[in-house]
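queue> pop job 88
queue> type: inverse folding (structure -> sequence)
queue> payload:
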């Protein structure tokens, strides 16, 4: 039986699916045009909730198909030309050897991480045993029950049981209302949550300290006020042994990546820059998987959604936070700056000449001390 929150979210999915139409003629060009505007409903939701059982996908390549999101409410044709069930299942893995590390017990065990984002279905199976505390930043706000795909994806990619990098870490989830009138109100939620993290770390023992805060958001370079405020939090949290990672800081060393295909997530050659990543600096940074991944869905405790193969910082930030959590598991005194240097030094070079993060090498070359700070 669906919870009231999940049932309400299903209505949201139905509403979203009604807001745009699929192309009448399906081919690689029309699919590319459909998802070309980053952040648009079609680029995020693709085939989710759509009845495509009678549509002709003959002229659509697999490369373009995997750019489209889909979920359990997508009605596929019988004997569909693409194995969408396999894509959904195999895209749960973070790739690049993470599963190998997890099987060896390198999974962020004993490391406490925090995600600050919009409300989620915290009872989802991917968070069973993972969520140590689910905190409402504004407890009496009417929008606390309005769940969002962004937060559940970020949290799961960091430490979800099947979709997460550090799937043994403890999660503190700070949920802010899915309602804000301007960026001052939006960042005000984050600052309130960061104050709560600081208070937490100042009042607990070493075993309960939050070591990483993941925020999949950033601000324009010309916002000196936000830059100064976040740098202040970075410094204050660092004094407690906690590292704040958000878009602006992440982008100094790393960038996001989409996939050539969904056939081999462990192969560095699978990862590429997306069509929007045309800046020369992206070619010099370390690529972090983001697009073409499966995440939990707020529509039910056992439901999942394949997110289309488009790169974005939002999904890459929790990935890097997860790898950092695994490194902290082996060396509790490691700083994020030291981690970044190791990540750059050990990165694999793929057949396109791009640097791709190498989690196995990072763990191997991190001086092991074990234990918790």
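queue> result:
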């Amino acid at each position: 039986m669906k919870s009231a929150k999940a049932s309400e979210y299903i209505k949201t999915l139905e509403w979203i699916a009604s807001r745009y139409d699929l192309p009448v003629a399906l081919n690689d060009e029309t699919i590319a045009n459909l998802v070309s505007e980053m952040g648009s409903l079609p680029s995020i939701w693709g085939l989710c909730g759509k009845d495509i059982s009678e549509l002709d996908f003959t002229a659509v390549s697999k490369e373009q198909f995997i750019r489209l999101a889909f979920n359990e409410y997508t009605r596929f044709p019988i004997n569909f030309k693409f194995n969408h069930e396999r894509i959904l299942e195999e895209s749960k893995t973070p790739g690049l050897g993470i599963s190998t590390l997890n099987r060896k017990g390198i999974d962020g065990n004993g490391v406490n991480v925090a995600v600050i984002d919009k409300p989620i279905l915290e009872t989802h199976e991917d968070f069973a045993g993972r969520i140590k505390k689910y905190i409402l930043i504004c407890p009496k706000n009417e929008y606390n029950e309005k769940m969002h795909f962004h937060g559940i994806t970020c949290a799961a990619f960091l430490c979800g049981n099947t979709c997460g990098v550090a799937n043994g870490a403890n999660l503190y989830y700070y949920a802010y209302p899915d309602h804000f009138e301007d960026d001052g109100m939006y960042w005000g939620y984050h600052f309130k949550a960061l104050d709560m993290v600081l208070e937490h770390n100042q009042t607990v023992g070493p075993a309960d300290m939050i070591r990483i805060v993941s925020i999949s958001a950033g601000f324009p370079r010309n916002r000196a006020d936000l830059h100064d405020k976040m740098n202040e939090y970075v410094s204050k949290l660092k004094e407690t042994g906690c590292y704040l990672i958000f878009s602006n800081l992440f982008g100094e060393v790393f960038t996001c990546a989409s996939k050539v295909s969904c056939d081999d997530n462990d192969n560095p050659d699978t990862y590429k820059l997306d069509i929007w990543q045309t800046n020369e600096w992206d070619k010099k940074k370390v690529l972090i998987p983001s697009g073409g991944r499966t995440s939990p869905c707020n529509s039910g405790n056992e439901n999942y959604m394949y997110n289309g193969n488009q790169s974005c910082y939002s999904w890459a930030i929790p990935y890097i936070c997860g790898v950092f959590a695994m490194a902290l598991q082996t060396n509790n005194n490691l700083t994020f700056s030291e981690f970044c240097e190791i990540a750059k030094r050990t990165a694999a070079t793929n057949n396109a000449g791009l640097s791709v993060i190498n989690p196995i090498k990072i763990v191997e070359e991190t001086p092991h001390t074990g234990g918790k700070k």
